[in-house]
Amino acid sequence: MALQISCLQFFYTTLFGAYSAFIFLRTGHFASIFVVHAFCNHMGFPNFEEVINYKGVKKIIIIILFFVGAISWSYLLYPLTEPSWYYNDSPWNLTSS
Asked: Could you give the maximum distance between any two Cα atoms of the chain, in Å?
């Protein structure tokens, strides 16, 4: 059990590190990754087991909100980290052009 928990923590920490690096390369500012990290610490890891225990409409609404949040995040990731918004004109930023 401890090995499974450690592997899960390693996995999502690695993903968050890659996400933070992406945001830093796009915006060029430490403040952006500081805010993202603070927000993620505040929200915490989603407790999917708790959702399973909900009944009826509440369960459906929360599952829909999980999907809406994931889709919104993936859709807005590039527009909200546009380098020109953050005056990031460094040669190593991740522009799409």
From this structure: 52
d(CA 45, CA 5): 13
Tell me which residue has tokens 């403040």. Answer: 31
Which residues fall within 8 angstroms of residue 27, CB to CB, at 6 or more apart? 81, 83, 85, 86, 88
Query: Measured between alpha carbons, how far is 32 from 22 in angstroms, rounded to an integer?
Result: 11
Mean pLDDT over 63-82 rounds to: 93
Copy the structure tokens of residue 24: 């830093």
pTM of the model: 0.76
The answer to whether the CB of 24 falls within 8 A of the CB of 32 is yes
